[in-house]
Amino acid sequence: MKNEIFKKDLYRYYGEKGETLKYRIFRPKEIKYTYLLRKAQACKNPLFKLYYDVKLRLLSYKTQIQIPSKTEIGEGFYIGHLGRVVINPDAVLGKNINIATGVTIGQENRGKRKGSPTIGDNCWIGTNAVIVGNVKIGNDVLIAPLSFVNFDVPDHSIVIGNPAKIIHKDNATEGYIEHRV
Length: 181
Hints:
Strand order of the largest sheet: 3-6-9-12-14-15
Number of strands: 15
CATH class: Mainly Beta
CATH superfamily: Hexapeptide repeat proteins
Shape: globular
CATH architecture: 3 Solenoid
Number of domains: 1
Mean pLDDT: 94
Largest sheet: 6 strands, mixed
């Protein structure tokens, strides 16, 4: 397993103090999901890969989190709260990504934006935000809750509203993303 990547994911939750025995025994389901996701992504043996994919699907029913193991996700992935999260298998997420409840990262099936999003590093995606299409979200981007994004977003930006507006801001995610890796 890519143990180092999962350790960096855990660091995003607990910081330097690490995961205590109590937290490990009563590990939240969003961390359990991330653990299984990383195991499935790292598995080279097709039989074991199938096993982890089935376990991931079963946990998906309990958690409402749907992230296929095929999805490319950088280190330091953080799911803020248990609840519905849907990410397309062709989406690409950078490192230090925060995802809140109700987020959808999906594909567009036709038109000039046909495809799935690519999200840069150090992005915070708020509750019920939707990102669709072959769009590029830059680094250090904060996507506010309830925003609908179907266009490219430059680095150091805040995206807010529906229809969404871009507001340039240096250090847009400062105070939102803790324990960066």
